[in-house]
Amino acid sequence: MDLGLTGRRAAVAAASGGLGLATARALAAEGVRVAICGRDRERVEQAAASLGADAVAIVADVGTPDGATGFVQRAQEALGGVDILVTNAGGPPPGTFESTGLDAYPAALDLNLMSVVAMCKAAVPPMRERGWGRVLAITSISVRQPISNLILSNTARAGATGFLKTLALEVAGDGVTVNSLQPGLHATDRLRTLHGGDLSAAAAGIPVGRVGDPDDFGAYAAFLCSEHARFVTGAAIPVDGGAYSALL
Q1: Which of 26, 75, 101, 207 is 20 to 30 A off residue 216, Cα-Cα?
Q2: Average pLDDT, the chain
Q3: Would residue 193 count as lying in a domain?
């Protein structure tokens, strides 16, 4: 299926590995010119090289609003504009209500909420002026089903989802869609490290019987950025192999 994305320009945050890189790879395969960022220069440059000669590597830390804004601005300069924004970031430290101090919340909110707001503030106005744009946020299944010992992530990502839904309603008439994907467990380097390379335990609680393939996630992300998905906006979609089992 031709997704109608040839020649579009995308900024994909935190894409030196994992689901961000898989999303960038799927977009690049559809003819999208991609700019990606990461904090480690060598790693992000290697990731960009794997995407093809047109990919742009940007060293940036989207964990702060200034870093997030700067990434989008540099992507706009490098690509001549950004038609597709994929927001993404790592997670804050683990902890419970009891173990997490009040002073830990601002940094977590910057990382998983304010970075999303900042990137959208930089990218969305030009999209509205052009009458076409896609915003896709990679969040977490914890938005629907809070994960134990991750109170900071649960809190910040839920806030980002509320912001994205509101933004979607405000820009829907301007040809800009805003959606989020809520990944469950996928076979990323981080998950392999956490499980000592053996993902069988991680797969045990997933109805499909395995953890997700990052390339499958990337393909679905690319579809939501496509012309075919122009009537989908304001959606927050689990991509978790059926692990989230509630009706709503």
Answers
A1: 75
A2: 95
A3: no
